[in-house]
Design a protein that fits this description.
15 strands; single chain; 13 helices; 401 residues; alpha/beta; TIM Barrel; 3-stranded mixed β-sheet
Amino acid sequence: MTLLPKDRPVPVPVSPSFLWGAATSPHQVEGNNTASDLWALENAPGSPLPDRSGDACDSYHRWREDLDLVCDLGLNAYRFGIEWARVEPVPGHLSRAALAHYRRMIEGCLERGLTPVVTLHHFTSPAWFRHGGGWTGPDGIQRFTDYVRAVRPILDGVPWVCTINEPNMLAMVAARLRHDAPDLVAGALPPPDQGLADALVAAHHAARAELADLDGTASGWTVANQTFQALPGAEAVTEEWAWSRENQFLDAARADDFIGVQAYTRVVIGPDGPVPTDPAARRTQTGWEFYPEALEYAVRHTAGRIPVPILVTENGIATADDGERREYTQRALAGLGRAVADGVDVRGYLHWSLLDNYEWGSWAHTFGLVAVDRQTFRRTVKPSAHWYSDVARSSRLPDDR
């Protein structure tokens, strides 16, 4: 296993333009995303998902309050998404009200001095898109391109646009669902559906072409970095695993303006594939190994693979213990500091997530810096958020002590 350097100077100062922020996605926080494919799955008879998103965090109406929370914490950036199913609930018919809503959110960020980082597709699609064959359907890529063209006019003043969130995860989950593949080691999924992977790459490149002449806007996509680590003798197997599940998606971003790195845990690979996590290892609520060093591995691996700036668009932990959240984040940021000190071009860190939100079928996994009462929607800032606020205000990546 590759060892990371531990003798780098920390805390590490960062540029005044470094983004310190938090992230959300529309379906997970907005509520009542009724035209989406996931809403249909949640509410289908016999749905395999244990929980429904329902009103979620009611952020569709409470977005101003959420922006104020980000601002009050001294952060300077907020990542959120535009929901395609709201913008185009029926094929070919745009909701001007939805477009105006998201434009107000962008303006709300700018008015508060927050840098908006906008995601155009964060896992969910309109139900009609899925029914028509989705990304690999006869007009799937064109449908997405048309949506991006419709959204383009409201992106004025947005410096960072993520086209598609975690395309590798989309393609791997599709493969598991299509082939009824068994559950594997936490964090390890079957090889992606390659046809879907190719379609997502094409859709991303088409979206970037639509955004190319937007003045001052950088575009890229985000990848779920899985921190594949090889045991002795398993280097070739690890390279095979990493190529299909991660590296091909990084390579597709070689000409992008930036790449979004998203890291949470690791996958250790032996000669026969993923090795089960030690039963004695600490785990998060999701069952993943508690491994904050994943972030440092991910940014170093990405920087070594493609020559584009890195924006950490997600990193965090699902835990009910807020002290553990602080420990995880402090160690993750210390590792990021070591990478930055070694010259890795990292432009910002966006914590996942701002709010305890709907985690794709479950309310049990709490990633948020801010708790949300499920009945009243009252927001309560956690101590870890105040700690993160102090770090951001210091403009230094902390050490891990």
